Amino acid sequence: MKSQESVLKMSNISKEYYGTRVLNNINLEIRAGEIHALLGENGAGKSTLMNILFGMSVIHSTGGFDGEIELDGEKVDINSPLQAMDLGIGMVHQEFMLIPGYTITENIKLNRELIKKDFINNLMPTSLKQIDLDEMNKEARKALDTLDIGIEEWIKVAGLPVGYMQFIEIAREIDKQNIKVLVFDEPTAVLTESEADNLLKAMKKIARSGIAIIFITHRLDEVMEVADNITILRDGQFITRKSKDDTNVFEMAELMVGRQIESLAKHEAKDIENQPVAVSLRKFNVAMPGEEVRDLNLDIYKGEIFGIGGLAGQGKIGIANGIMGLYPSRGNVLIDGQPLALNNPKESIKRNLAFVSEDRRGVGLLLDTSIEMNIAITAMQNKNKFLRDYKLFSQKSHRQIRTHALDMIKQLDIRCTGPEQIVRRLSGGNQQKVCIARALTLDPMILLVSEPTRGIDIGAKKLVLDTLIKLNKELGITIIITSSELAELRSICHRIAIVSEGKIEGILMPDASDTDYGLMMSGEYNKLKSKEVI
Amino acid sequence: MKDKLHVYIKQFGLPRIIIVTFLLSLCVLAVIYNLSIAGLLSDTLVRTGMHGVLVLAMVPGILCGIGLNFGLPLGILCGLIGGLVSIELDLVGFPAFTTAILVSIPIAIVVGWGYGVLLNRVKGSEMTIATYAGFSAVSLMSIGWMILPFKSDEIAWIIGGGLRTTITLTGRYDKILNDFAAISIGNLTIPTGLLLFLIAMNLIVWVILQSKAGIAMKAVGDNPRFATAAGLNVNKYRTFGSILSTVLGAIGIIVYSQSFGFIQLYQAPMFMGFSAVAAILIGGATVKKASISHVFIGTFLFQGLLVVALPVANKMLTAGSLAEITRIIVSNGIILYALTQVGGGE
């Protein structure tokens, strides 16, 4: 049934964004009827690879890519998503691209409507031709039947359960006559278990009809269930290509995470657990869209550098944002044993918490304001620093702000033309240092840092991480660092919690095995371990 | 060289270059038509001082994040009430002027607070809502002027009910600031008191902007998400900005009236917000950024344009109210231009 001819062949694909190499000589080959799993952590390069396949404008506006794409043995240049579609490449999106007010049929047939074939209609200009709804319904029905979906095709999409929407997306893709390659980008992320099972069944069925499927996911058990072959990427590098039968969940987990050699300052292990608890979370819930935290329990000890890792969308980002009161949260939070009033950023700052946001440009900085004001403002507003008091009114103290800013610029080595430069003009790394400087100006006992090295270059990365270690050692600040980069967490943290589906999957020491990390990240750890015990 | 010129134009702003060029060419025409430049300059100074505080009212609005305060008529109405009360109390001179301001401020604070609460509920479309809030308030007060219990013959119609449409301030506080320590040099008259008052108001606003609350307000307007993370109450400081803007609007109309010599009721305040908006935009402000210097530059350029355009236009074409038409084209054109720049990126 499976032909040996490959439908899609991507060879030696390389891509640079502004001098940073994000993909390096990637090869991907898929036969008709094959389900091919593409694995990798966040930032491994999966999305970039798919963007190249679809000819997304983000690729071409940043200088294109190197390498070749062959479809059915012929070399193709894909310059736009429209062209990709014409060539028979389809995509099931992670976020649904459906029009709620339209019926299922209309969504499936959007922009590919069938036209009535009577005489008058033939005379009309294209955009005014009558559409043949009956025929469209029939074809939509056929596509839905292929997927074993019993839902009526004339129902409006609005209000349908998420699982159905996913299937409508798929139906739309398989309804296209020429479809050859179908990409599923984490299709099960938003589905319940039974919905996911249905989806996997449908995928197998689609594959049997001769369509090649690229399956992007984090869930290793799903890979084992449906995939024929597996390609693993890590940090933009091609790691391996394996047949499913030659591997197992543990090996895949290890290959995905991999041990990375980092020359970052390592520090001596501390006897952390005998310290008092600095932050205690019980039944902690945060409603941060896309990063929800659900009934999470966690203790963080005084004086430690605590890492929070996990895949994107699992809720790791939500924890710090919830503690700082930036997103609606509920549950119990104790800081040094005393309860913290939730949903109140001012209160969190008063309790000597400081936060360096993951959204540097959105939340972290006043982009068009000077470096010195960015550093001073939070302390000024919350601790009445940098103010001259004239009883009736207060004025900012220009001199104090300047002195402090110069001091911080020197301490953190912020590269700038002076304290009056606006922060928009700084590089990512220096902007991050301004954020850290502001947090330090609050004299925090507990510092929450989210994604401290996102979007900054390798040299600045090391500086930022070294700074955090220094603060921890010299000032005894408890640091809670949230990061997508496991290697970075493992290089500076005393303990690392891995978050999966809004809960703590487990807490590991930095030197725990790659397999354990990989399994925890994909949420399989507890399932597999409990099986072993039995 | 070309690049340098480009950068320079960008920094100064294309609209301002056009306005300045237009103003200069009008001045040349004025000289050609033998008009008194000193007289024109005096008029420009008077009108700058007259409108300056109203334009200044735009600054806190822009900085606190509600955008251009098209709801300025709200503040103007508060100021008008203050002005009427001082006449009703039969005050004359500086006491009358001061009382008018002191009466209008508490009213403006209450109104500004309500206005701020309203704008906090419609984040993202403040300017549209503000425009209509202004219109509605003016219309509502048109009824209000009919039924408010003012008794003074100067304010109320002697026969029938309601207040007069135009109330003369002669013998009350007509030109009280304009004439204070005014300096005459030949044909040129400098309205010292008026300009000093404007500078004082600007100074007060500047001091407020350097205070803790002012800095918080600017942060809220600049980046609400940042402000929240910094422990600031976004809605509170937006309301603070609205109140400040409304109070300045109230004071602004009293200054305007004393210079104009009349208090105008009913439909008069309807479009007053628009010329203030146009002036600050000409000064170089945007929907997100404004400073005290924008107030001075903008008011001077905008009023200068109108002052010079009127006699020049009259000399060129004797027909009709060409100056008024110019004013409308320029002010609305500038507003239109500025609004197309909203969210134009970084």
UniProtKB/TrEMBL annotation, chain B:
One GO MF term: transmembrane transporter activity
One Pfam family linked to the record: BPD_transp_2
Its localization reads: Cell membrane
* Cellular compartments per GO CC: plasma membrane
Topology in membrane: Multi-pass membrane protein
Presence of keyword Lipid metabolism: no
Q: Does the keyword Coiled coil apply?
A: no
Q: Which residues cross the membrane?
A: 17-41, 53-82, 94-117, 129-148, 185-209, 237-256, 268-286, 292-313, 325-344
Stretch forming the signal peptide: none
The protein's UniProt keywords, in alphabetical order, are: Cell membrane, Membrane, Transmembrane, Transmembrane helix
Q: What is this protein called?
A: ABC transporter permease
